[in-house]
Amino acid sequence: MAFCIAGLLTAAADLQAQTGQSRKLLALSKADHTLAIVDPASLKVLAKMPVGADPHEVIASSDGKTAYVSNTGGGRFHVLNVIDLVAQKTIDSIDTSPLMGPHGLAFADGKLWFSAEGSKAVGRYDPATKKVDWAMGTGQGRTHMVEVTKDGQHFYTTNTIGGTVSLFSKGNVEWDQTVVSTAKGVEGFDITPDGKEIWAVAAENGSIYIIDTASKAVIKTLEAKAVGANRLKITYDGKLALISSLRTGELVIYDVKARRELKRIKVGTGAAGLLIDLDNTRAFVACSPDNYVAVVNLKTFEVTTRIDVGGRPDGLAWALQ
C-alpha cells in the first residue's frame, strides 16, 4: 500500500519551505568534543559548546532552540547531550540506557528519535516528560542511521553490519517491519522529497540501492563505485544525490532522475558528515581527517572554501528559528 503523500514526508524534506527563517549551521568536532554554531552567510563560527566524549550526530528541535548530540562509543556509551541554542550553552545529558550506542538522530512529531547501535534498536525521547517513552528492536546488526516521517508513523534505518535497510510502518496496534537486503556497510541514506524512494549506499562495495517505499523492495542497484561511502543526501528539489566517501575523500554526485553519475569532487582525504543548503546551492562536507568542513558549490561542482569548526568534524545539521 502506498503511503507517499505530502503529510508523510520526512521532517528533513520539510525544511526547504522554511528558508525565510533565521538559521544556523551546527557542526560537531570529535577531537575537541564541541558543537559549533556557524553563520551560514559569513561562515564564521559564532559559538562553541562542550559535548560528550564521542560526539557523532547532531539534530535540532523543530523550533531550532534546542540541539541534541549523540555519543556512540562504539555501541558502549548511552548519552545524548542537550544544548540550548539560544543561550548557547550545554544544559543537560540524557541517559539512554539500556539502549546503548546512540547514533543516528531524527526529530519528528515533537520527539527525538535515535538509533541504538549496541542494542539493535531505535528509541524515542519526549522532551516534555524528559523520558525515553518508546523503543523498538530491529534485530539487525549495528542499526546506524534513522529517518522518520513528519507524523511519526513511518521510520527507516540502515543496519551496517546486517547489510540491510529496515522499513517500519505503524499498524493499528503494533509496528510492522520489512527488512530489505542490500550489502555490508550500508550506512548513508536519504528519502526522495516525494517519499517514494529510499537511496542507500554501502561502504563495502560502493553501490547505491534504490528502494521503493510502496513495494518495500530494491528496484534498482547502481554500481556507483563509492567505496568507503559514509553519507548520502538528496537535495530538497530531488534532483541530486550526494555521497561522501571517508575512504577516498570524494563527493560523488548523481542525477536522481537519470540515475547516472554527474561528477566526482575531491574534497579532502576523507569525507564524512554531509549537509545540503536549503536552497540547494551548496553542500557542506565534514572532512574529518583534514580538520575542516568543505563548502561545495552545487552549480559549478567546485569547492569554494573551508570552515574550521574544530578537529575531526563530523555530524552537521540545520537549526531554524
Automatic annotation (TrEMBL):
Gene3D superfamilies: YVTN repeat-like/Quinoprotein amine dehydrogenase
Any Pfam family hit: Cytochrom_D1
InterPro entries from the UniProt entry: Host-pathogen_enzymatic-act, N2O_reductase_N, WD40/YVTN_repeat-like_dom_sf
Protein's UniProt name: YncE family protein
Organism: Niastella caeni
